[in-house]
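Researcher: Please translate sequence to structure tokens.
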Amino acid sequence: IGLMGPWTQPVLGEVMQGGAAERAGLKEGDLVLRIGSTEVVDGQQLRELIRASVRDGQPLEQPWRITRGGQNLTVDVRPEVVQE
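Model: Translation complete:
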């Protein structure tokens, strides 16, 4: 038996001013359909894909397929590596 959190849509929340998402043209409320070749089915998977978008300390630029205002768009997103 596996435990899962509640299903959530892969919708972007707050976009940080000056951050990687804003520089790529992403906006709060964008529905993420695909990152690279991977279809995004829920919010948990979206978070996991974002975390996995850095390999060997280097961010991987990938096209994101999103829906905004009824339009499908593709934007290139280059994550920002931040150490806390």
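Researcher: Any highlights?
Model: The chain has a mean pLDDT of 89.
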